[in-house]
Design brief:
mainly beta
Length: 382
């Protein structure tokens, strides 16, 4: 029995010496931050892999940015951020405009003191009130989030209604309008009251093609080009009242229809909770101008003048705007801004006044005005 066991023991010892020795496993503990990250974003990983120090196989996208740093100024660092480079397929804006207008025509005399011959009222004495109107924009972007190749179309409209400028002078029967027209009339000579009213409204329609260039998720530059139509309609009324007889009126209506093309740019820069948008546009237009005049007098509103004149010319436009944008919902943003618009080469109603006897057919096309004011509105994207 001993004889057989001894060789067996020898063989076992030899085999044990030839086999490789397996290393002992060590337990590796990860830093707390790594354990927390892996636990938060990779909850489907096996618990044993954490303690073995082996990263689990990634089955999801790279770790997202946590929505915790609400005060960061970095684009993309907080929950209320918006990616300005990802243009929605459809987007819309609705703004309320509150604009003031500067420019009431060349400074010519409207009323004289017949005793001294001194001017008592000029067109420059009138000042427009602040007027309001809506602005709407709708855009369509066929390939969102690919700004290097995107092309969006934007259709927009705005209107300003009710620009008014009024002025009144009174005297004891010693007022008159200037020129031969005043001398040839009844109520426009030795009037007690001369009242001037200026009314103006503007409509704007645009269709623009937008080409966008994105620097990053926080900065986008849009180049725009397109067609623009502007309608400027004005009425100017001079009324002269004689307390003993009645009232005469001098009415001028001037219509401008502008058709043209424009070029411009728009820059939008985003931070965590705000974005700023800067816009600049310039255009050249063909202006179809028409002015009509009607002068009535005593007795029985006899017509002293009923004329009209038309012309066509070139007009220029420049527009600048700045808007602050604040996200208020997933798809909705608040807009607060300021706009300036200048228009030159138009027929303003007071510039058509003609106090000669046989005038009223010439069109003065050298008028200009500046409109500026606040923008308050909302924008949404889908």
């Amino acid at each position: 029995m001993r004889t057989y066991l001894r060789p067996s023991l020898v063989l076992l010892l030899v085999a044990g010496a030839l086999l490789p020795i397996a290393p002992a496993q060590e337990t590796v503990f990860l830093p707390d931050a790594r354990v927390e990250a892996l636990t938060r974003f990779h909850t489907d990983a096996a618990p044993a892999s954490i303690f073995l120090g082996v990263d689990p196989i990634e089955t999801t996208s790279p770790l997202p940015v946590a929505c915790t740093d609400a005060g960061s100024e970095s684009c993309g660092a907080c929950c209320f951020d918006f990616n300005v480079c990802c243009i929605p397929c459809i987007y819309a804006q609705a703004d309320a405009l509150i604009w003031h207008r500067v420019g009431t025509g060349c400074n010519q005399v409207l009323a004289l003191n017949t005793n001294t011959g001194d001017p008592v009222l000029r067109t420059g004495d009138l000042n427009f009130n602040v007027a309001g109107g809506p602005r709407f924009l709708i855009g369509w972007q066929p390939d969102p989030c690919h700004c290097s190749r995107c092309c969006a179309l934007e259709l927009s409209y705005f209107g300003i209604f009710g620009w008014n400028a009024n002025a009144v002078v009174t005297g004891p029967g010693n007022l008159a309008i200037p020129g031969d027209l005043g001398l040839a009339s009844n109520y426009f000579l030795f009037a007690d009251i001369i009242d001037v009213r200026y009314r103006s409204q503007m409509h704007n329609l645009e269709l623009n093609c937008i080409k966008s260039c994105c620097v990053d998720d926080c900065l986008r530059l849009d180049f725009l080009s397109g067609f623009r139509y502007i309608s400027l309609d004005e009425d100017y009324i001079i009324s002269a009242t004689d307390f003993n007889e009645g009232t005469s009126s001098y009415n001028v209506n001037a219509d401008n229809d502008l058709f043209g093309v424009q070029l411009g740019g728009r820059l939008r820069r985003a931070w965590c909770r705000w974005a700023i948008e800067l816009t600049g546009k310039a255009g050249i237009f063909y202006n179809d101008e028409l002015q009509k005049q009607l002068v009535t007098d005593f007795p029985n509103d006899v017509i002293l003048r009923s004329t009209r004149g038309s012309n066509d010319s070139a007009a220029l436009l420049a527009e600048l705007g700045v808007v602050l944008i604040r996200p208020i919902h997933d798809n909705w943003n608040l807009r607060l801004g300021y706009n300036v618009l200048g228009l030159g080469g138009v027929a303003l109603a007071p510039n058509q006044l003609d106090f000669t006897l046989d005038g009223g057919t010439h069109v003065d096309k050298d008028g200009w005005f500046l409109a500026h004011g606040a923008v308050i509105g909302l924008e949404a994207g889908w």
